[in-house]
Amino acid sequence: MTSSNLARSLFVPTVVMALVNLVFGLVTVFWQVPTLTGAAIALGLFFIGLGAANFMTSTAVGAFDAEFAPVVQALKSVALLQLAGGVLTMILPHTSLWVIVVGSLVLGISGVLTILLGLRVKDTLPIDKDWRIAGFVLTVAGALIPVIGDLGAKAILGVSGGGALIAGIFMMIGALTVRSDAKKIEAR
Do the beta carbons of residue 164 and residue 24 sit within 8 Å? Predict the structure, then answer.
């Protein structure tokens, strides 16, 4: 059973993760004619936001118990991957090839790592299922980018933004669940 302190500490980072996903997803929905440069910068900022949110999560989990040290290290690794991918997406030449390669690798690898983290903390952290679902969605988005990326910037943003919207919804549900769990634990 999770303590209410751990559940409370996970609430804010989970909300931040959800908001990063939702904001990026909504931007991609309403951006009608993106350029490849604009898409690269938006994707880079999205990755940097994800990295920051994962770093916040690692800090929240690490402050709770030394038992979670491997999870904290894995979260920091995912955060560094996303931060590096964000910077690379913005500084590499804004060609379809680079945006597709970096975008698909960052989404795919960080998605798989998030799934594995969710499996590692199964029944230990209250957001394990949300990590697995969000990781799966981002992995699929990362796998689809090379398939449809040649259609242009709108296709790249559509796939990555669609995945971000779905992941954001599940992460927001996870945040609300974590908050509810904390209140239930405190009521006992």
Answer: yes
Which amino acid, 141?
Answer: A
pLDDT < 70 regions, the chain: 1-2, 65, 185-188
Q: Cα(173)–Cα(170) distance, rounded to whole angstroms?
A: 5
Per-residue b or e along 111-134, where b marks 16 or more CB atoms closer than 10 Å to that residue's CB: bbbbbebbeebeeebbbbbbbbbb
Taking only Cα atoms into account, the Rg of the chain, rounded to an integer number of angstroms, comes to 16
Query: What are the helix and strand counts (H, E) for the chain?
Result: 6, 0
Write down the pLDDT at residue 123: 81
Give CA separation, 62 vs 6, 12, 126, 186, in Å. Answer: 10, 14, 15, 21
